[in-house]
Design a protein that fits this description.
Oligomer: single chain
CATH superfamily: Creatininase
CATH architecture: 3-Layer(aba) Sandwich
Shape: globular
Helix content: 25-40%
Order of helices and strands: HEHEHEHEHHHH
Number of domains: 1
Strand content: 5-15%
CATH topology: Rossmann fold
Largest sheet: 4 strands, parallel
Distance between the termini: 40 Å
Length: 266
């Protein structure tokens, strides 16, 4: 048994032993960005890491390691607000590629990226495709996809999922670190904020997207964090971790040997 699931807390011999035992590696990916006036800026990476650690600790049949968290992601749409640290798309994907390649270089094959920031989603999907077609397949998801329809049974507000600094996110942080949350500064806010003013009804009717930007002077929130409780957060985290643990077991049974290189890196 491992002393800890955290990669960075282990010695090299322990990591080698985990590899030899067929360990699965989880890589939390998040961001450092504003989350309104009531949440710390590590919201996204804190939650992604917690889901990974809880899932890893539930698997006893083989080792599961939680790699050092990638604490910065793609967040230019939050840069008008203090505390946000963003990476360029090219930097973000190059960094993740180097991390994945480093882990695979040491003989690990079953990697799962667990995302905690909505702004990373498209980038991670594209990266997973790029890695898979160059002979390095990885699995990836955002932690809230593991919770799915259970949000409807847990959350009280009109948003039955994850927005931004919302009921769900604030509840998770309350469950993880209640001292980091100042609910007296939480505000309910659903209004969209775009690069330029748009007819949001027309966009919705046509199924169109348009870049959202959390402008300076706005609450920096999408949802109703005033409804958050630690109990809701605990339920959300438990569901996400349980479902991730189940996937880890199934994924490890997947034979990833002999994956062809269809389109090599330049």
């Amino acid at each position: 048994m491992l002393r800890t699931v955290y990669w960075q807390k282990l010695r090299r011999t322990e990591i080698a032993a985990a590899r030899d035992a067929g360990a699965v590696v989880l890589l939390p990916v998040g961001s450092t960005e504003q989350h309104g006036d009531h949440l710390p800026v590590d919201m996204d990476i804190n939650t992604a890491t917690a889901v990974c650690a809880r899932a890893a600790e539930q698997v006893s049949e083989f080792p599961v390691l939680v790699a050092p968290p990638v604490w910065s992601g793609y967040s230019p749409h939050h840069m008008e607000n203090p505390g946000t640290i963003t990476l360029r798309h090219e930097t973000f994907t190059a960094f993740l590629t180097d991390v994945v390649d480093s882990i695979m270089h040491h003989g690990f094959r079953h990697l799962i990226l667990i995302n905690g920031h909505g702004g990373n989603t498209g980038h991670l999907s594209a990266l997973a495709n790029k890695l898979a077609t160059s002979g390095r397949p990885i699995a990836q998801t955002s932690w809230w996809n593991l919770v799915r329809d259970d949000f409807k049974e847990i959350l009280d507000g009109e948003l039955k999922g994850v927005g931004h600094a919302c009921e769900a996110e604030t509840s998770c942080y309350l469950a993880l670190d209640p001292n980091g949350v100042d609910l007296s500064r939480a505000v309910r806010h659903y209004a969209d904020s775009h690069v330029v003013p748009v007819d949001t009804a027309a966009f919705r009717e046509a199924g169109m997207g348009f870049p959202a930007v959390f402008r300076a002077g706005t609450p920096g929130v999408h949802g109703d964090p005033t409804l958050a409780t630690a109990e809701k957060g605990q339920k959300i985290l438990d569901i996400a971790a349980r479902r991730l643990a189940a996937f880890i077991r199934a994924y490890r049974r997947t034979d990833l040997a002999g994956v062809p290189t269809l389109f090599p890196d330049p």
